[in-house]
Amino acid sequence: METLNTLFALLTIGLGLFGWLAPRYTLSALDLTMGDTTMGMSEIRASAGALFVGMGVGALILATPTAFLMLGACWIGAGVGRLTSIILDGTNTKKTTFFAVEAVVGIAAILTNLP
Fold first, then answer.
1. Range of the structural domain that residue 66 is part of
2. Among 57, 45, 39, which Cα is nearest to 20's?
3. Number of structural domains, the chain?
């Protein structure tokens, strides 16, 4: 269980580092473009980047089943948002792949840490 939890947290941190430190790459990977301001870059750094780094680091610092369960809940939250987009906005391979990863990591983290 400890090894899985560490992997969940490191995966979260690793993906967050891309958004935080490589926002142009992340924008491209997500099929997003920059507008006339740098707010898009700021949002990617914050919501797709440092937020995920903070979640993963926080889970590692607390190192409790509850912390890792909450990490799973965050991944499920992302998956719910992605599924909503698939249903309301249409689907494509990238959305489906991202949803699958979010769902698998979220469900695994939750099931691994249920009391």
1. 2-113
2. 45
3. 1
* DSSP 3-state of 37: coil
For the stretch 26-59, pLDDT in tens is 999 999 988 899 999 999 999 999 999 999 999 9
Contact 112, 71 (CB under 8 A): no
DSSP 49: I
- The 3-state DSSP class for residue 114 equals coil
Please, which contacts does 48-52 make with residues 24 or more away whose CB atoms are closer than 8 Å? 48/16, 48/18, 48/19, 49/16, 49/17, 49/18, 49/19, 49/20, 49/21, 49/23, 50/16, 50/19, 50/20, 51/16, 52/12, 52/13, 52/15, 52/16, 52/19, 52/20
d(CA 72, CA 45): 21
pLDDT in tens, 90-112: 999 999 999 999 999 999 999 99
